[in-house]
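User: ok so my PI wants both of these folded by tonight, can you help

Assistant: No problem, let's get them done. Here's the first:
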Amino acid sequence: MTLRLGDVAPNFTAETSEGKIDFYEYLGDGWGILFSHPADYTPVCTTELGTVAKLKNEFAKRNTKVMALSVDGLESHKGWISDINETQQTEVNFPIIADEDRKIANLYDMIHPNSNENFTVRSVFVIGSDKKIKLIITYPASTGRNFDELLRVIDSLQLTANYSVATPANWKHGEDVVIAPAIKTEDIPGKFPKGHKVIKPYLRTTPQPDL
């Protein structure tokens, strides 16, 4: 069954490069990113895992843990991690799932329908503290993922989960946000005391409320 936004992310236990892990226990009460890779020793994914390792503090600021997945085994993962650390000048600091039986890949619908049946597509799932799926993005093999964009999206998701706002195009942390249409204009001052602008009756903005 295809997973959709708002669905509960399926829990699983898996052997990883950091031992056996229960996904829900690993996430605790925080947020999570689960992202898949076609195979170990692939060039684009080598740069991606190195980038994620370097962003550990940024994910930690957002109470977000990362877990990667590949259909290769633990011994292969160990060798690949050594290559990542060497070539990307970092230390891989998150678990990589060894999904040799493709159980988790199938659970999250990560097997590429138009490619090798053994390859997972390069998918990203952002999972909220309520264990529900907040974002799904799938990339082609030729295009590296933009992890700055994933950090931006997590900022938006965490903000909009707590306030009646949405974030406009290209929004970044610290910029003005859009007030939800359900909020009546006359009620805005009580809910958003930092002020607001009425551009159109349906388009009202206010400074980011949690700053």
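One down. Here's the second:
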Amino acid sequence: MNNKKKVLWKIFISTLYLSAFTFGGGYVIVTLMKKKFVDEYHWIEEDEMLDLVAIAQSSPGAIAVNGAIVVGFKLAGLPGTLVAILGTIIPPFLIISVISIFYAAFRDNFVISRLLLGMQAGVGAVIASVVYDMGSGIVHSKNIVSILIMLAAFIASCVYGINVIYIILACATLGTVRTLVKNRNSRADTSHTPHDRQS
């Protein structure tokens, strides 16, 4: 029981800390979650993190909250989900509330505008880092189909400007078809008896 409370506390503190220092959108907090829960705590495998990110991205709503939901549920079930959501939404709620009060002062402030521009550059570097980490994991797996899907999705989005929703739906369809074919082949292999194989 104490161990579960410790895990829940760590989830809350981690998501609170990550959310408080995340600038530039949900992809950044997903990157930081990967570093925290995969690289530091070793609670989640890298392949599992990729699956959780895919679920978070393909679900409606903010990816930061979706990511917290799937990671929290993976680690501690429903209580983990609740504390992860709470930890994720508290910092932006407080920060936006303060900014809304002083919006007129912030809006035309030269220092604030320069500060935000600097943050954008840092955010770009962080997103590039997570793309490299996750993309290299797919390449190292040497799964030709996964690599082709990744390249096709990149070209469709960056070169042809296809809506991300269509790309996600297409990738989900391909993944479903691959799973069905793999399961069917697996059942076909197990249906053969040793006698059938010898004959």
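The two ends are 56 Å apart (CA to CA). The chain has a mean pLDDT of 81. Good luck tonight!
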